[in-house]
Amino acid sequence: xxxxxxxxxxxxxxxxxLILAELGIEAELVEEKPWERRVPLLELNxxxxxxxxxxxxxxxxxxxxxIAEYLDDTRGPTLGDRRFLPQDPAGRVEVRRLVDWFxxxxxxxxxxxxxxxxxxxxxxxxxxxxxxxxxSAIRAARANVRYxxxxxxxxxATRNWLAGRHxxxxxxxxxxxxxxxxxxxxxxxxxxxxxxHWYARIKSRPSFRTLLADRVPGMAPWEHYDNLDF
Length: 230
Description:
Pfam families: GST_N_2. Helix content is about 50%, strand content about 5%.
């Protein structure tokens, strides 16, 4: 069985968990605290970032984008229209562009700030950066999420899914990152109904069930977090 080293509220880890669930791949989940940088994890991935997938053969595949590409290489050719990275070059470029947008830009401007300040720092020791949240970082993330939400709405207004006709890695990456922000109640869904309806479609998929069941100890999710109809 494959093994996934992850953290339940690491948005990159959630992206890979969605992919595995969509592909029907069972994996043993090993929870890591990213700030601890455990030696066994560093031996497998010297960068120490999450997630890390160990496939059935023991091959260590590090990082969300590399894991997504690896799973497309090994599973994609048998999926036909269900392939999450299309076969045509232009389609692949668009999916990769949007995956980079959410794994890079959205993470750097929104989800990393909120996960760190409102979740991780609650459990990190002071010497590793734990303590009260930085409210200026939280305010910046809340401001930034608004234009990302508008961009999602813009894309979905002319497409069936974010990158085109079919569900792709772009949708899974965006939804994984938004799910963290949604847990914390920091997505202004009333500002873009189109984006909200797209997220409801994703949230209703069976692959999302385990994410919706995750809980931060001592912090309940926002009231609509696991409500499939919002």
